[in-house]
């Protein structure tokens, strides 16, 4: 048991020594050196220009790069999992009323019966839909899909 404590403290000491040497190396530059570099102006290498954010569905501006004839190559992101949820409605209640909820309680939502559901992907509205039953399971039939450009505008 004592050996484990000694090993841990030796490892911690080695890590602390590495950090101390790294901080010592980084601390060599004084504020005067930093100010001189900032005041040089055009002599310092310029940062690479930032590319403008392109809207989905627009054609690529240049053929060079990973984009193909149809647009950007989406193969790299197709297997990324996302959360999709269907929102029937929402409401705000006090914690007092929340604690009083039990089996059989009814919570009034902000939507009328028959209004379309919101379809959210990672919390972002992408479509509206209606509830359907398919093979004795609930499903959603999309009735209105938000355009990609509108979704991007809502993110900004």
Would you mind describing this structure in some detail?
This protein is 30% helix and 19% strand. With 156 residues, the chain is an alpha+beta fold. It has a 4-stranded antiparallel beta sheet with strand order 1-2-3-4. A hairpin with a 2-residue loop joins strand 3 and strand 4. The chain is extended, with a radius of gyration of 28 Å. The model is unreliable at 1-6 and 62-67 (pLDDT under 50).
Protein topology:
Elements: H1 2-26, H2 31-39, E1 84-87, H3 95-99, E2 117-121, E3 124-134, E4 137-145, H4 148-155
Antiparallel strand pairs: 1-2, 2-3, 3-4
Percent of residues in beta strands? 15-25%
Total number of helices? 4
Kindly state the mean pLDDT as a whole number? 74
Spans with pLDDT under 50 lasting ≥5 residues? 1-6, 62-67
Shape: extended
**Element pattern in H and E:** HHEHEEEH
Descriptive keywords:
four-stranded antiparallel beta sheet, 4 helices, 19% strand, alpha+beta, extended, 156 residues
Question: Brief overview, please?
Answer:
The protein is an alpha+beta fold and 156 residues long. Helix content is 30%, strand content 19%.
